[in-house]
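Incident review: delayed structure delivery

Summary: a single-chain prediction request sat in the queue longer than the usual turnaround. Root cause was a stuck worker, restarted by the on-call engineer. No data loss occurred. The affected request and its eventual output are reproduced below so the record is complete for anyone auditing the incident later.

Affected input:
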Amino acid sequence: MKKIGLREFLFLAPVIVLISIFSLVPVIQSFTYTFFDYRLNDQQNAGLYLNERFNYELFDETQLYLTMFLEEDKQQVTDPVLLGKIDTVIAKVEDKAKAFAGKEGVQKITKEEKTELIALSKETQEVVQQLAEQYDTANEENLPLIAKDIENSIIPANFIGLKGYKQALGDARLGAALVNTTIFTFVSVAFELVLGLALAMIMNKAMRGKGLIRTTSLIPWAIPTAVAALMWSYLYDGSSGIVAHLFQMVGLVDNSRELLLSAGGAMVSTILADVWKTTPYMALLLLAGLQNISKDTYEAADIDGASSIQKFFTITIPLLKPSILVALLFRTLDAFRVFDLIYVLTGGGPGGATETLSIYGYKAMFAQTNFGYGSVIVMIMFVCVAVIATIYVKFLGANLMDKN
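Output delivered after worker restart:
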């Protein structure tokens, strides 16, 4: 094989750059998030901090309200000693605000500044507590909380190492999501393989209107997944859905209204919708493999007196093995990462019965804005997908790169 030189590498460089930007960078970024307690709903964890930082904007807001409320409440103070303490605290807070003037966002602070801020916070809290004990003021409920925010402006490091993965190992909800994902993936892919192979063999037959059959069979796959899920939600509707009433008539469910409200019914419904949606895609991949099988092989089998079943298991299946691998690999990975179908159809309910890893990861990241733990879920899903791909290629034994 000819070695790749500089000229050949330059032709590959754009593809490598695009793969790095759109594939490798997001994976590396997600992997980095797993080592931090990164939560946007918490000011102290709204970034990736390996060392202690200081939130200058939070301190500026805190000192503004603190001085304003203290100036307002001290009008009721008659004790000259307490008045002096209040004025001293106000002066120190204002001096510190002047020292921090021009600084924005979250930045590093020195140990001396940290020590001074903690001392100022404690002194402020003592004065506020003494004020609340001696006088009934308008801001006695808010001042203690604001005084604590001086110390809360110091942001500790939120690097947690492997604690996120340790938490995931003991997360019962994650385990349930993994079980739901596995059930959905292997049941739906198994049905899609059987039905897709049958559909592919029908489309491979020489018959009148073959082109029309191939075109119409691809319509479910051509429909956007979100649209298909919304369509199936109407069909499953307990009050007016045709499919729901049909299931009740044949005895699959006791009440059509409970189809999407029971754990088993919801899982079966999502699997049925997915099988209807993606069986044509499986059939299309297998049809390409069937068309590569020479007709001479079947003619030789006919001469030897082989039956249709014998030809199917001794010719079709062995020669279709690479195509089956590709179809299974693509569909399994796609089904394991399923999101839009279940999100639109059930939202992961009822009670988490159809919540998959992708749904759980989405809820952790965007509903709870917990990007650290959400990234842990994503990385676990990434590992599962890699393991599935390895198993398919290793144990099915089809060498896709073999030119012979």
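Verification: The CA atoms of residues 247 and 253 lie 6 Å apart.
Action items: add queue-age alerting; document worker restart procedure.
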